Amino acid sequence: MGDRQRKKELFNQLARVGKALGNGKRLELVDLLAQGERSVEHLAVVAGLGLSTASAHLQVLKQAGLVNTRKDGTRIFYTLAGLDVAGLYEQLRNVAVDRMAEAERARDDYLHGGRAPVPEAQEQELSREDLLARAADGAVTVLDVRPAEEFAAGHIPGAVSIPLEKLQQRLDELPPDQQVVAYCRGACCVLAYEAVELLHAHGRQARRLQDGMLEWRLAELPVTTGHAA
Amino acid sequence: MGDRQRKKELFNQLARVGKALGNGKRLELVDLLAQGERSVEHLAVVAGLGLSTASAHLQVLKQAGLVNTRKDGTRIFYTLAGLDVAGLYEQLRNVAVDRMAEAERARDDYLHGGRAPVPEAQEQELSREDLLARAADGAVTVLDVRPAEEFAAGHIPGAVSIPLEKLQQRLDELPPDQQVVAYCRGACCVLAYEAVELLHAHGRQARRLQDGMLEWRLAELPVTTGHAA
DNA sequence: TTGCTATTCCAAACAAACATGGAATAGAGT
DNA sequence: ACTCTATTCCATGTTTGTTTGGAATAGCAA
């Protein structure tokens, strides 16, 4: 086999990772898996895919080494293969949003679209460092608005879990006089935006954490697992 | 437009970057562009592509925001859009090689294949930090074996440029009693491996720098441009 | 064993990406 | 104006990915 042929083969192998990340549905699956492990059925439902389709996409991700599987009885749970994969996904997202005007617009449409874009909201976002400092004083309530199972799979130490769907009816669980910092999956997740809006509508002091759990993990900050409040 | 639709659109936009990286030929182009700007024809020749094909691939990279163009008369020069893109490429490569056994094998085949794989050669590779320390003392000669134009587009300060093709006939330009540290494009570039082998065959003290110019740039270490020795 | 469930495999229809050669474009030189 | 060159655009055939529904598999529970 010639040198040229070997080079071609190398780049084709590297391209398999690119291909795996070159499909919107697969990126959505990666985004979900970054929050914790999931069964095939769960992923299919949440991503709006047929079972066979979801399975096929997961095979592609697996062939590219991006996800691992764990068998539990008759179920198969998929997980991201590691933090490096989450980092790759984050960097891809950053490059896309920074370098492609259309991607930036699509993100803004998704995050703020349909609602009023509040210009000062962005400056009010709290950085991870600030959150750590304030949470240490007990000066803020940290609110996780992701689904309960994602909270269980890993959350910011001391955070309270109230999934966005149930936030309205469980408002009284939040101290009324304290500022609330809401967070969700990551930079491209709507949940915390909507939570902050809902809290403001009810006269609460609320801000959004910059980014979310994905970036928190990548920053290697402490993570608590389990259902406890 | 519904929320679901907007989400789909966002992930489809992000996937365009993945798609752009999902083709071996395009990755090869990115690899070349990481060394400096290039005309279409040059890229086509070096990557072994037809002109139309190369142009089409470059369009895809451009649409994804990964490369920029500069017009100079009738020529068009392509460049990587930024260090973030180089970083994305590096991370993709690392994930591929770390997570896919086939990719790791393909890399090793390309780097060492056809020649004897020397097991201790890897430990003899010099880290960037060590190189900086040794070069400051003048204890080693730093040798850039990439093509001259890549050297001109950016090299390690103090490095000597002898393209691999001309190394044999220009051996006498290297001080015979000093250790030589050879480097090339990056972790997946053969040039420095072959250079070290050739130098050893001529009884020289030679080692390879870990990785190459791509990773040097990403580490934000000093870079010199221009043709001067 | 039989039934039940979650997942994967398979085949077929459909859609998207790729390579190629020739035409069109745009800039520079004459 | 014409010519030359570098690049892009276009139409083509070919290959590769995607979705779908149904069949096959593997594990659990009677």
From TrEMBL, chains A, B:
The keyword Transcription regulation applies. The keyword Transcription applies. InterPro entries: ArsR-like_HTH (IPR011991), HTH_ArsR_DNA-bd_dom (IPR001845), Metal_resp_trans_reg (IPR051011), Rhodanese-like_dom (IPR001763), Rhodanese-like_dom_sf (IPR036873), Thiosulphate_STrfase_CS (IPR001307), WH-like_DNA-bd_sf (IPR036388), WH_DNA-bd_sf (IPR036390). PROSITE patterns: HTH_ARSR_2, RHODANESE_1, RHODANESE_3. Residues 6-100 form the HTH arsR-type domain. Residues 136-225 form the Rhodanese domain. Keywords: DNA-binding, Transcription, Transcription regulation. Pfam families: HTH_5, Rhodanese. It comes from the Bacteria. PANTHER family: ARSENICAL RESISTANCE OPERON REPRESSOR ARSR-RELATED, HTH-TYPE TRANSCRIPTIONAL REGULATOR KMTR. This is Metalloregulator ArsR/SmtB family transcription factor. It comes from Brevibacterium daeguense.
